[in-house]
Amino acid sequence: MAADLGELLVPFMPTVRVPRTGDRVFKSECAFSFDSPESEGGLYVCMNTFLGFGREHVERHYRKTGQSVYMHLKRHVKEKATGAAAGAIPRRRNGKVFLDLELNRDFNGEDYEYEDEAKLVIFPDHFEIPLPNIEELPALVTIACDAVLNAPSAYKKQELDSWEEEIQVSKHARSLRQLDNGVRIPPRGWKCQKCEMRENLWLNLTDGAVLCGKWFFDGSGGNGHALEHYKETKYPLAVKMDTITPDGADVYSFEEEEAVLDPHISDHLSHFGIDMLQMQIKTENGHHTDNNSRPRVSEWEVIQESGMKLKAVFGSGYTGIKNLGNSCYLGTVIQVLFSIPDFQRMYVGNLQRIFDYSPLDPSLDFATQMAKLGHGLLSGQHSKPPMKSELIEQVMKEENKVLNWHQQKGVSPRMLKALVSRGHPEFSSSRQQDAQEFLMHVINLVERNSSGTENPSDVFRFLVEERVQCCQTRRVRYSQRVDYCIQLPAPIEAATNREELLAYETKRRDAEENMRAPPEPVRARIPFTACLQAFTEPDNVPDFWSSALQAKSAGVKTSRFASFPEYLILQIKKFTFGVDWVPKKLDLAIDVPDFLDLSRLRAAGLQASEEELPDLLPPIVLAEDTRDNSMGSIDSPEIDEAAVMQLAEMGFPLEACRKAVYYTGNMGPEMAFNWIIAHMEEPDFAEPLTLPSVMDPGPSTSDSPMGATPLGNSPPEESIAILTSMGFPRAHSIQALKATNYNLERALDWIFTHPEEEESDALSDMADTEPNDNAFSNANSHSDPTLSPDRDASGPRVKDGPGRYELFAFISHMGASTMSGRYVCHIKKEGRWVIYNDHKVCLSERPPKDLGYIYFYHRLSIS
């Protein structure tokens, strides 16, 4: 028999590979579906590419690649005998459990046992060879099979990589000595014992001293008294006061010089009278920055509709998405996108075509993974109601628990997350992220991958008309830019309960000063009309250069809709920054309407009574030859000396600090600090700043960088020079400036959220011709009746129409910061509001529309 097996495998030996270091072995999920070894048909792993395929997709891979040898993996799961879970019968672990897989179910692992089966399958005849079969198989095949069976799954490897900086347990945690000095810490009203600072406070776990943290380069943060205390006492561990929650706290080891874990943190805190269960609720690896627990608890309960008997729903469009750990931002965004017909049609309607034309590695193809996840959500295959017998069994097990929350398994977005986050420093991590930033990231990926095909993100794209007026001459300039999301400010001063808020603030300060419990928190209630009014009000243009005066002047800018999108995205600007630069959420509620009419915000363009600003450039700053530095007519460059001194106090050379502040456009010490870090190794780092020369302005088709600029013109060299001096490529800098209407600060944000594309030719073309961050050239090669009337076919494609909308979805955030907490979404389907809370999908009883973060509207049809 051994000879027969050897002869059978001889023709295929060149295609069998042994996994090398770096090879990803996909043995837990199909590349085209959510089939796994636990599925009825099991999973087939190609012994050449190590990609996994379900039974209905393996034939496609065989026909496309000619690879004939696959390893078939099957895991048989069965419930233990009665009493096993309680310890009466030990969990059975036999030699047939050999796959390095997580149990792909929402089961309690102690209630179930499983055994694994593996065999080689040779296509096209489906000849099967059971494994292990060491004696009968060629040595190379045996080694390859053993390597595949013992290799970690691709997902486990990725998860380890994303937690490569995982916090370790401190060596002091188990043996920490705590002084019996009678110190008791109150639950609120903390302040530094040396300087009375009330933010960024740390509790030393040895003697209970409450002291402020380190000083930041911008002057905020603290006076470093906690570190000084360690140097004096050598007491090693401290906990950040405003991070203490029932789930844990942020602990720092001064001796180990890093954040650490303390498994005994509850006991260590109780030594000083702190009960963790009474502190702020936190989930999913959060970092909280405020001490007010009750608003957060209320918010969590309201948004998740806790305490209500929500009815679970099943079927097409009602499939949940599993949380991979801090991935609910992804799940909520994807749920909303696939509730839009254009995304359904693009990815699910074209499923077979996408799969048939997918590349050799479909795990790296954006369209394939979007189609896979979209089909998983819309097919209903993964959202089936439980059988009657299962319900009875579940009721017997969970007696007093809410049954409906526990039925649906949902689908796992691992493969899509790995793809869309590849190369992104934040989304590739296992930390919580901002759902709005991720939404814009996905839209950008859709744009890049829709060249020459239907582009579903067209439904979000619209044009904004910006009107800039010189306050002195009253002349104006109009320009247009592309956008996908409207960010509405939340003016606290417009709150309808302002007196109540002022009274609460007075009581809170009094409670802190007198070390009493804080008063019942008050949530600001802001009318939606006030948010819309704040959005439409004129903004001052910093450093506005008037081409009419040929000098700097005061300028104001107003924005209106040059076109209305088919689907409107509204983001409420709920977040600000704390002293530790962590985004911190404002506690507010906004009465967002179900129906919205923005027709009055339609742009009108240049009016007959208005006079345009001349098309003239501001003075262009060029590097001057050092031999001409003696010119007396040259003024010294404007430099923020306060920022220079803050940097110099950190130990950097004074001239380097001056250059950093100058080359970052006086945008603050933090931006200049980044410039210093990027240029420290340059030979002229500490040399004096070369004075610029000023050229006379001349006529040009370009506009002032301070004012709005028509689409298609080139950015000013001064702005480009500032960005390139910070280390960004010239083409990417031009693209960023054009995408943000030549606003330098917004261009920097754009660069950080839009990594440079690999397709250098396409990027170069975009930098020369396109004013925005998305590739429209191929999609706009033909005329489109939906184009805005003042745009030609070469411009961005928009689906203009009436500005009347109806709310159909919103994403809500729970927690104190975008870096922590959770997201859920509510979507209106078939006239009913449905809550999507990870893998749990239920009919909503009270959709919390006033606490949303991102709102989605669809255009009302003309009746």
From TrEMBL:
Biased composition range(s): Basic and acidic residues: 789-798
This enzyme's EC code(s): 3.4.19.12
Residue ranges occupied by any UBA domain in the UniProt entry: 638-679, 714-754
Keyword Signal: no
Region of interest called Disordered, as start-end residue ranges on this chain: 692-718, 759-798
Highest rank taxon of the organism: Eukaryota
Assigned protein family: Belongs to the peptidase C19 family.
Name of this protein: Ubiquitin carboxyl-terminal hydrolase
Organism encoding this protein: Zoarces viviparus (Viviparous eelpout)
Taxonomic lineage from the root: Eukaryota, Metazoa, Chordata, Craniata, Vertebrata
